[in-house]
Structure prediction request, 527 residues.
Amino acid sequence: MSNMEDFEIKDSVLKKYKGPGGDVVIPAGVREVGENAFSDCKELRSVTIPDGVSVIGFRAFSKCRNLQDVRLPESLKTIDRYAFDDCANLPKLFIPGGVTKIGYRAFIRCVALKEINIPEGVTEIGGAFRRCMALKEISIPEGVTGINSETFSACDSLERVSLPSSVHYIGNQAFRGCFNLRMLTIPTGLTGLDEEAFKGCRSLPSLMLPDSLRSIGVRAFSGCVGLKELTLPRCGGRIASEMFRDCTGLTEVTITEGVVEIDSEAFRGCKKLRHVSLPESLRTIGAAAFAGCENLEGITIPKDVTVIGEASFSLCSSLKELTIPDSVERIGDGAFKGCSSLRKLTILGRKTILGNSAFRYCQSLIKVSLPYNLPSIGVRCFADCQALTELTRPVGVRSIAKAAFSHCTGLKKVQLPYSLQQIGDEAFARCTSLSELTIPSGVPVIGKEAFTGCWSLADADGFVILNSTLYRYWGSDEDVKIPDGVSEIADLAFRGMQVKSVTIPDSVKVIGKDAFLLCPNLRTIHT
Prediction:
């Protein structure tokens, strides 16, 4: 039993309990249990709150870790913020029907709480049950309009949630980390679903997202590995960043007409994704949007897409054929890097910019069809495409950037167009099978080591000579005589060779920078 001297009461507000704990009955006449009234009362086992009390204040029972039984009066209207925070042994609680407000984190860290009800008069739940790790089931009454931020976050035993039709908003991280959530019905009138709302709900097997949704936040369903098939509504025209990242069980996605943008990493790491239906309304595919979707076998890029972002389909190792429509203005850096099964590529856009490493490591790529007047081919754009055997004159191309086709070890024949103004450094470096190369005369810029390692271009004496320029010497002779007719010795032409003497004919007018760099045995140059 409790003694009156155990209670500090002022103006009908219980300011502080000063007793020894145990089983406590609050005296009649109290209208409010005040802020911190029982906080840190470690010996409190049960409490009976009398009729007439309408408010349980901020942290009123916070850290009462041995509290096991609470009896609330019918007069109660408000349970304030953190009211029962860290009541670690409270197993159940009945909330009377007159309660209209459950404050922010009111029951946070009530780790033993298995049973609790939410009265019909409640309209908002503010993060109230975060880390209630024993809670398995909850029914939200009609009239609740929003599930606020973190309301059920880290309730890792929660299996079933019933949401009423009145709910139109689910806040950020509302159900994040509910690892065992299996049954969830999303109401048809829902308009907003905020960031990370269901992140990590790995047991959730399916979702029906209503057409009423105007926005879904970033990472909303990231890590929901149990999801298999999805139809995504218009969502205000945008699929947000990382929305379904690492949903490794997802196999099929249909995106509704009206979506214009798929943001960065939206489906990154969806390893089992085989089929994606993109709407004709789509304009932008963001950076790494489908990166690492290693079972994606085909994708149809809609005809009005203008941007394919950086790494958007990188490491899609099952992708076999690809056509880029003429609407695409830019294919971002690394967009299809590591698509190791890609065999056929057609690019239709005459003004499409090919980003750096856009198709690097596409090791099965045999055929590339480039459009007329393509402005440039980016740095390492097709590097390490080892199955590529032929590059047929890409008419209109003005620039082939650094290392664009380097390490294409299967490349045998290259015909370069008259429009070409620049061949970058190492553009065709180490294309070891390249034996037939046509370069139009008058290309203003041919970079350093553009053809280094192209052993098969060398003549019988080890010279790689193109349009009267000696680009490289690969021979084994120690005393070398450069053929008559050579007008220029390119930069680094003899780099690292073990020559002792070189005879240069009168026809040579230019000797490039570092042409004889690292030739330790070179003693004589005859001119």
Remarks:
- The CA atoms of residues 276 and 511 lie 56 Å apart.
